[in-house]
Design goal:
Blueprint (H helix, E strand, L loop, with lengths): L2 H15 L1 E3 H8 L3 H13 L4 E3 L2 E3 L11 H5 L3 H12 L6 E5 L3 H6 L8 E5 L2 H10 L4 E4 L3 E3 L4 E3 L1 H8 L3 E6 L3 E2 L3 E4 L2 H12 L1 E7 L11 E5 L5 E3 L6 H8 L3 E2 L1
Parallel strand pairs: 4-5, 4-9, 5-6, 9-12, 12-14, 14-15
Antiparallel strand pairs: 1-3, 2-3, 7-8, 10-11, 11-13
GO molecular function: DNA binding; DNA-binding transcription factor activity
Function: Repressor of the lactose catabolism operon. Galactose-6-phosphate is the inducer.
Protein name: Lactose phosphotransferase system repressor
């Protein structure tokens, strides 16, 4: 591919994605990291795109504003319930399970049907949902710096606690799933979820199908290290086929 063709293709990809990583450009264009970085600098200087940390941003891209917990609860309700119902079937008696923040993860609580369970979460909403369930569960709420936007505890205190805990399973929500990484909006939130995943025997992502082929600000975990992605039945056939070869997709 000629350089002029490559640069045109890069502009096309950036405009199509809004924001795209340098790694993804390398894979799609089959060129080296050095070439991508040099090309991005040239296109940025020419005013064709905006070079950002780790990739590029379209000139027309409008940065996504993080929605609040209450706002997210009103989105894709049917799909979230579908995914949550499937996820609950993976929870067995006497397990120690971590539940991350997110309205899809929160919905799992309604469908859990076991008597003995040890629960760890840094999500106030998940904690309150388990309390309302009125089951005889052992529940631990991890404290730390409180993010009101997502009703989640994060930061050094939360991370120190999570580092010392081990889980049978971790159920994590995300804002984006691409072919190499899962991502979220907030770095601190992503960091806490990364620790929980690392300390879990079975690493599970639960997300509605709208999260696929999407990226958010902070990529916090490689897709190759995820054991299972649980989503709703609305996922497109071609998208399912693509991801089922990368991770166990249900």
């Amino acid at each position: 591919m000629l350089k002029s063709e490559r640069l045109s293709k890069m502009i096309e990809l950036v405009n199509s994605e809004g924001v795209i990583s340098a790694n993804k450009l390398m894979q799609l264009l089959n060129v080296s990291d050095m070439t991508i970085r040099r090309d991005l600098e040239e296109l940025d200087n020419a005013g064709k795109l905006v070079r950002v940390h780790g990739g590029a941003q379209s000139l027309n891209y409008q940065r996504i504003i993080e929605l609040s917990h209450d706002e997210k609860k009103e989105l894709n309700i049917r799909e979230k319930i579908d995914a949550a119902c499937k996820a609950a079937k993976y929870i067995k008696e006497n397990e120690t399970v971590f539940f991350g923040p997110g309205t899809t993860i929160e919905a799992i609580v309604d469908f859990i049907d076991v008597k003995e369970l040890r629960i760890v979460t840094n999500s106030l909403s998940v904690f309150e949902k388990f309390q309302q369930k009125n089951a005889m569960y052992e529940i631990y709420l991890v404290g730390g710096s409180y993010r009101d936007k997502t009703r989640t505890f994060v930061g050094s205190i939360a991370n120190e606690v999570l580092t010392n805990l081990k889980f049978d399973k971790a159920f994590i929500g995300v804002n984006g799933i691409n072919e190499t990484q899962v991502s979220t909006y907030n770095i601190e939130e992503g960091s806490s979820q990364k620790i929980a995943l690392n300390n879990s025997i079975l690493k599970i992502i639960v997300a509605d199908h709208y999260k696929f082929d999407k990226e958010d600000f902070y990529q916090f975990y490689p897709l190759s290290d995820i054991d299972l992605i649980i989503t709703d039945d609305g996922i497109e056939k071609d998208k399912f086929t693509k991801y089922v070869n990368l991770v166990n997709l249900k």
